[in-house]
């Protein structure tokens, strides 16, 4: 006998539906809710765009788990999901970032192509986002104008913006600054692990002058805090981060703010400045 557990009835039902695309699509209106997540996951993993598009249009939950599935860049699959969400906008009676516009979009730990980013910025269904999470999505090789356009479109609703580990550089962040300054509802921003110089970080802080709703702000330590090998220059860190904090205090009255280095590859800790300097274990 095999040591593997036999497939569950749920798994067998999902596999049966995926083998017959027409059957799967026709059955969605009466499909039990419990089948939606596993069917969506399998259709996503196998790139079955027609099923994905139809599933999103009748999605029975308030959260769509696209971010956890985006392991690699696949424009056709992502576009199918966005097409399905856009279909909701044309329906007079809505089905069982669905009774309201998409509020949360989380795409993490993956690589987006330029076409992916273009699709996100053009999707009408994303224009009332409250939470945008692109953590560990590397943007360094992408032209940032579509992302700027997306920020412009959600400026009146966006509350949290997670851009940790996107490895953005000065020129990309500069492009985003005018749109970012208009996101007046922001309560939390996270820019950790982006390669930004002292001058551009100061510019970023000045552009937050009107963001009075912010209660938590996470910024990267400036590039000038690292030597040619990427190791932290502790003296520079202790000098420059208080200077950035002073800059921010002249702009408005911040609440919770920290500046942090990249994670130390030895002790897996950051050097952090939040009105006091706290070094990683390697420097203590």
TrEMBL record:
The keyword Methyltransferase does not apply. Keywords: Leucine-rich repeat, Repeat. The keyword Repeat applies. InterPro entries: LRR_dom_sf, LRRC14/PRAME. It comes from the Eukaryota. This is Oogenesin-1-like isoform X3. It comes from Microtus ochrogaster (Prairie vole).
């Amino acid at each position: 006998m095999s040591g593997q557990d036999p497939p569950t009835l749920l798994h067998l039902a999902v596999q049966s539906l995926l083998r017959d695309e027409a059957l799967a699509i026709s059955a969605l209106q009466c499909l039990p809710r419990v089948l939606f997540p596993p069917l969506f996951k399998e259709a996503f993993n196998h790139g079955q765009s027609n099923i994905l598009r139809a599933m999103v249009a009748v999605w029975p939950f308030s959260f769509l788990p696209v971010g956890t599935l985006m392991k690699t860049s696949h424009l056709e699959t992502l576009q199918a999901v966005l097409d399905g969400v856009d279909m909701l906008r044309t329906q007079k009676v809505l089905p069982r970032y669905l009774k309201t516009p998409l509020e949360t979009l989380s795409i993490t730990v993956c690589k987006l192509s330029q076409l992916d980013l273009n699709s996100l910025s053009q999707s009408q269904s994303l224009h009332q986002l409250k939470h945008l999470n692109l953590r560990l999505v590397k943007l360094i090789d992408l032209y940032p104008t579509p992302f700027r356009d997306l920020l412009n479109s959600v400026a009146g609703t966006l509350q949290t913006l997670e851009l940790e580990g996107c490895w953005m550089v000065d020129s990309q962040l500069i492009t985003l600054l005018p749109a970012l300054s208009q996101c007046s509802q922001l309560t939390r921003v996270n820019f950790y692990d982006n390669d930004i110089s002292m001058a551009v970080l100061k510019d970023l802080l000045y552009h937050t002058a009107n963001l009075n709703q912010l209660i938590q702000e996470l910024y990267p330590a400036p590039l000038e805090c690292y030597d040619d090998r990427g190791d932290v220059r502790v003296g520079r860190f202790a000098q420059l981060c208080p200077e950035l904090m002073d800059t921010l205090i002249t702009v408005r009255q911040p609440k919770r703010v920290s500046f942090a280095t990249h994670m130390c590859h030895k002790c897996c800790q950051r050097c952090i400045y939040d009105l006091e300097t706290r070094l990683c274990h390697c420097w203590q």
